[in-house]
Amino acid sequence: MPWKGILKFFVIGFLGLMLSIALVLVRETVSERSQRREQVYSDMALTTAGSQVVAGPFLVLPYEVTTSKQESSTHSEIILPRDLVMSGRLQTEKRYRSLYEILLYGTQVKLEGSFEFAEPRNISVPQGSTLRWLEPYLVVMVQDNRGLTRIPVVSWAGKNFEVKPGNGGLSFGIDGGFHSDLPTEIVKGGTFAFAVDLSLQGMQTFSWVPVGEKTRVKLEADWPHPSFQGRALPREHEITKSGFEAVWESTQFSSNIAQLIQGSGAGTGLQNQGVGVRLVQPVDVYLQAERSVKYGFLFIAVTFGAFLLFENLKRLSIHPVQYGLVGLALVLFYVLLLALSEHIAFVWAYVVAGLASMGLLGFYVRYVVQSWKNTVMFTGVLGILYAVVYGILMSEDYALLYGACLLFVLLATAMVATRRVK
Predict the structure, then answer these.
(1) Backbone phi and psi for residue 30, each to the nearest 5 degrees, phi listed first
(2) Contact call for residues 180 and 141 (beta carbons, < 8 A)
(3) Cβ proximity of 403 and 390 under 8 Å
């Protein structure tokens, strides 16, 4: 009777809705596992150095102003390097915590350049007040001092000076750093060469603030998957299987560093001027698992559609329970994929989960459709779908195009197959 067909259609639709909810729960599980990984990264950052930012060096010329009423106040003039050259090479190291791989790096950073300034400078002193220069010092800002594995070496005009911890009281939005006291006579002005050597460790991201009037940075690394970030891209770069090499160049006209370091809130936005690189993992299993789950709705729709075709074209009667069990097997593929990908490479997790799903469904469908020929056809189509979807997952730039083409082909196939159905 027609009403039986309509009832079965609604029952199958309800099963499809329930399976879609199951897929949403699987996606939430993927998201929870991804958040757990980020929490592990944060926990790791508490026991070792996190992402690093290097800013400087800055020459600080403090002075004291005494009024006629013998009231004193201390101020500072901050001078940026005329030219700054930074070089470094990142050496990566993998650490493991629980199931998660964490990428650390160590680098030997060298800062070289010069300061050039003359006296008098534009310092406003109230009438009747006197100005007295205090001991100047050189400051280098570092985001996380725990990454300073050795005492830095600071050279000024060819002479090494003692290095002290702390950022000299500057409010740059970068908590750590070190400074060196310099001779008072340099306040008279001139041209002074400097060099700073520091060993630095960090996690995932390394960046710097181009504070020089002219800044050049050359960075090498043994990691072949960089993601260049910040307010400027490298002028030139080369990426090979063994690592990358990149060069950045900038001037004071391409940033507002000089304006940011002026005033009482000096440097409060300086950390937002950073340029750098993030060492990314080439395969994010959670991102790929989440993307693959999105195609679960397609697998369920194709499978249910194929069963409906078998029922109409082959005059079979497939029970709704059988629809549901096949749908659950398809959903279980994604759970198995997620679990395996946390232990083995994603490609092998996909292959194992796919073969397991095809084997289970092939065995069961043989008794549902009562035909080896139709079983082989169904399993083959399922295998092709798994292969095509994997290709889409691996091709991020063309994923939308390939996905649209796949949907078009499937719809065209269904329309051709059902063109004579009454």
Answers:
(1) -60, -45
(2) no
(3) no
Residue 111 structure tokens: 């800062």
Find out whether 212 and 113 touch, Cβ atoms under 8 Å: yes
Closest CA to 195 of 273, 81, 271, 54: 81
Residue with tokens 């592990």: 40
The β-bridge partners of 108 are 199
Would you tell me how many other CB atoms lie within 10 Å of the CB of residue 369? 21
22-30 LR contacts (CB < 8 Å, sep 24+): 22/328, 22/331, 23/293, 23/296, 23/297, 23/300, 23/331, 23/334, 26/293, 26/296, 26/331, 26/334, 26/335, 26/338, 27/290, 27/293, 27/294, 29/335, 29/338, 30/286, 30/289, 30/290, 30/293, 30/338
The dihedral over CA atoms of 405, 407, 409, 413, expressed in degrees to the nearest 10, equals: 180
**Angle at alpha carbon of residue 390, lines to 369 and 305, rounded to 5°:** 30
pLDDT in tens, 247-282: 999 887 777 776 767 654 445 567 677 888 988 876
The vertex-253 CA angle with 251 and 256, nearest 5°, equals: 105
Residues sharing a CB contact under 8 Å with residue 408, sequence separation 6 or more, in sequence order: none
Evaluate if residue 396 carries a pLDDT over 90.
no
Cα 295 to chain centroid distance, Å, stands at 25
Q: Is 369 helix (H, G, I), strand (E, B) or coil?
A: helix
Is residue 316 packed enough to be buried (19+ CB in 10 Å), middle (13-18) or exposed (0-12)?
middle
Q: For 194-235, how does the pLDDT look when each residue is reduced to its tens digit (9 = 90+)?
A: 999 999 988 888 999 888 889 999 999 988 888 888 888 888
Report CA dihedral (312, 314, 316, 322) to the nearest 10 degrees.
-80
